[in-house]
Write a structure and sequence with these properties.
342 residues, alpha/beta, 9-stranded mixed beta sheet, 6-stranded mixed beta sheet
Length: 342
């Protein structure tokens, strides 16, 4: 009678061992990655042959072609999604496209988490990074000058993996960025007073993406008529920093994908706008309407319509108009706080 009892005991021990092994190895989130909202795929760290790239998405929904562009450049490695809003939806969206080892979302909503060594190392191990939308002022408050901040810049400039962001995540990827900390700036208000309290622009004190040092982005562009506020922001940069900024602005569900040579293409449903400023506004003072005319040629703007596979080319390295293809040139200017285009 003892022999069957021994067999049952061994069988139970074997099953128990297997279950424990599966539980511990199936996902990094079980190991207690701080801020993790879950992981899909293989929990083991891989090393792939990857290529650099920057993706600026205008919000309003996913751009599948842009995700596929980043995944290809990742070499099929590990993807990290950063958020501060507790949404793990990108795990399913990105993993469903295939071609990656894993995807994990980290909800980093405090400076304590942003300064956590495990969080920073998890980000450094990534072969692709995507920053979700939300509130860029929260990203600024929680992430700036932390170990997470350093880890993102490491991916951008040393490891050189594809890094992208949508809406708020797009906003913080350029050297000049709008924080939105005093509420959302509205075009009419800030064109009539470019020193309106909602105009909060920061200069290269956060993320340092290649070629974007003098660039200011904006998002949800045509859908929320943000062209006017973008121009007012650029005028403020000239007034405050004596720098002639450049602008990049994708519409919703539209992505500007910049390859390792600094050449951009536009993927998605709307347009992307590339804006050059070469002159000072005639009037940019507190409480007065913006005047930026320069004989109706204050700003030179190139519009590229997106397609699912990618359309047009624009050199982000030098904003050279001779290298622009697939779009059309326009002039923008401001008279008495009103934006005109032709």
């Amino acid at each position: 009678m003892k022999k069957p009892v021994v067999k049952i005991s061994r069988s139970y021990a074997a099953v128990r061992f297997i279950l424990i092994f599966i539980f511990l190895s199936a996902s990094r989130c079980f190991a207690g990655t701080p801020g993790s909202l879950g992981l899909k795929g293989d929990a083991g760290d891989v090393h792939t042959k990857h290529q650099p790239g920057i993706v600026l998405i205008g919000g309003g929904g996913n751009v599948t072609g842009a995700f596929e562009w980043m995944i290809k450049r990742s070499g099929g490695g590990d993807v990290i999604v950063l958020t501060a809003s507790g949404n793990a939806g990108y795990n399913d969206d990105i993993f469903a496209l295939g071609g990656i080892n894993s995807v994990e979302t980290l909800n980093i909503a405090s400076r304590e988490l942003a300064d956590n060594d495990t969080v920073a190392q998890t980000v450094r191990n990534a072969e692709m990074l995507f920053i979700a939308g939300g509130d860029q002022s929260r990203y600024m408050r929680c992430w700036k000058n932390t170990k997470l901040n350093a880890a993102i810049n490491y991916l951008l400039n040393e490891k050189k993996v594809p890094v992208g962001g949508t809406s708020a995540g797009c906003a913080i990827l350029t050297g000049f960025y709008y924080s939105g900390e005093n509420g959302s700036a509205v075009s009419d208000s800030v064109l009539n007073n470019p020193f309106h309290p909602t105009v909060t622009i920061y200069n290269n004190d956060f993320l340092h993406a290649p070629w974007l040092k003098t660039v200011l982005s904006d998002q949800h562009y045509s859908e929320r008529t943000r062209e006017g506020r973008h121009v007012a922001f650029m005028a403020r940069i000239i007034a405050d920093h004596s720098v002639f900024p450049k602008g990049i602005a994708p519409d919703e569900r539209t992505a500007v994908c910049i390859n390792g040579n600094g050449m951009a293409t536009v993927i998605g449903e709307g347009k992307a706008y590339f804006i050059l400023s070469r002159s000072k506004p005639e009037q940019c003072i507190a409480g007065k309407p913006l005047e930026w005319n320069m004989y109706k040629k204050a700003l030179q703007v190139y519009e590229i319509p997106g397609t699912p596979a990618g359309s047009g080319h624009f050199s982000i390295v030098d904003f050279d108009e001779k290298k622009a293809t697939g779009g059309s040139w326009h002039w923008w200017w401001v008279e008495k706080g009103i934006l005109f285009r032709r």
